Amino acid sequence: MNIPKSHPRYKSLLSREVVVSGFKNGLTSLAGLTAHGRGETFDYLLGEETFFFAHAALDAAASLLLLSKFPVISVNGNTAALAGRELVELSEILDAPLEINLFHPEKERERAISKHLKYLGAKKVLTPGGGLIPFLRSNRRMISREGQKKADVVLVPLEDGDRTEALIKMGKKVITIDLNPLSRTAQKADITIVDHIVRSMPILIKKITALKKETPEALRSILGQYDNETVLKDAIFQINQRLTKLSYE
Ligand code: ATP
Ligand code: MG
Predict the structure, then answer these.
(1) CA-proximal residue: ligand 1, atom 22 (nearest)
(2) Ligand 1: which residue has its CA nearest to atom 28?
(3) Which is nearest to 155 in space by CA: 221, 233, 60?
(4) How far away, in angstroms, is 156 Cα from ligand 2 center?
(5) What is the pLDDT of residue 198?
(6) What is the pLDDT of residue 186?
(7) Which ligand 1 atom is at minimum distance from the Cα of 42?
(8) What is a single Pfam family found in this protein's UniProt entry (predicted)?
(9) CA 174 to chain centre
(10) Rg of the chain's alpha carbons, rounded to an integer?
């Protein structure tokens, strides 16, 4: 589709097209398309920018990932389509494995995502097997023995609430990227980046590169000042304030 750059929703429509292509190329599921729509709605309400609360969460996320002993990056169909290149770069700079975890597990889609990530430069892509999340019933409880099972920190962008909760119950620290500050994932995660994955991934990479020079004490101090509850309240306040302005001004 040819979207004119002058279109007020240009970037948003471009992302939508990327997810639609992801579906056509076997990366994204049909349900993934509607999940993207939910994200778009919250982006629209927030104002389609990376706000200060997202920056605070990105600083904390970068610090936690750098302090982590074994971080793992969980990848699903939407994240692979929207931010595959950045996920591979992040995996490289953190020396953290990429692990495919699908809400609707299909071997064929797993293979397509793995192929796509490898095409973008990933050296190794883990798939579920050998590990189980004890608090989940469905196929989604499958995790990799070499990945999430061993991880102390898991980055789970655009994740479902059940899995997030279960990973936390397993004692893992969870970082998410989720445009909906009200979702169970956003509410349960240790660090919630309320921002579009396409905008926030390059910022996360930049922040990690800059913070790599810092001492563990400095990173711990950034984490110590971070409060996820405040970040979620600030995001909800942003929507509230924006809608109030639009309705009364
Ligand atoms: P939960 O299960 O956590 O209560 P949910 O059922 O609404 O949330 P899921 O479909 O399980 O949502 O997970 C997808 C989440 O990702 C949603 O909260 C959605 O708002 C968010 N999301 C979708 N697209 C993007 C995007 N491009 N960037 C950031 N977040 C997104
Ligand atoms: Mg859900």
Answers:
(1) 39
(2) 196
(3) 60
(4) 13
(5) 97
(6) 98
(7) 20
(8) PPS_PS
(9) 10
(10) 17
Residues of the chain whose pLDDT is less than 50?
none
Q: Are strands 130-132 and 142-144 parallel, antiparallel or unpaired?
A: antiparallel
Ligand nearest to the CA of 187: 1
Residue in 62, 79, 30 with CA at minimum distance from that of residue 205: 62
How far does the centroid of ligand 2 lie from the alpha carbon of residue 83, in Å? 20
* Beta carbons within 8 Å of 240's beta carbon, 6+ residues apart: none
- Give residue 1's pLDDT: 66
Query: Distance between CA 189 and CA 187 in Å, rounded?
Result: 6
Domains annotated for the chain, with CATH where assigned, are: 52-239 (3.40.50.12640)
Position 222 scores a pLDDT of 98
Q: Which of 160, 182, 195 to mutate to test the pocket of ligand 1 (most atoms within 8 A of CB)?
A: 160
Strand runs labelled E in 50-144: 71-75, 98-100, 125-126, 130-132, 142-144
Q: What is the pLDDT of residues 108-154, one digit of tens each?
A: 999 999 999 999 999 989 999 888 888 787 777 889 999 999 999 99
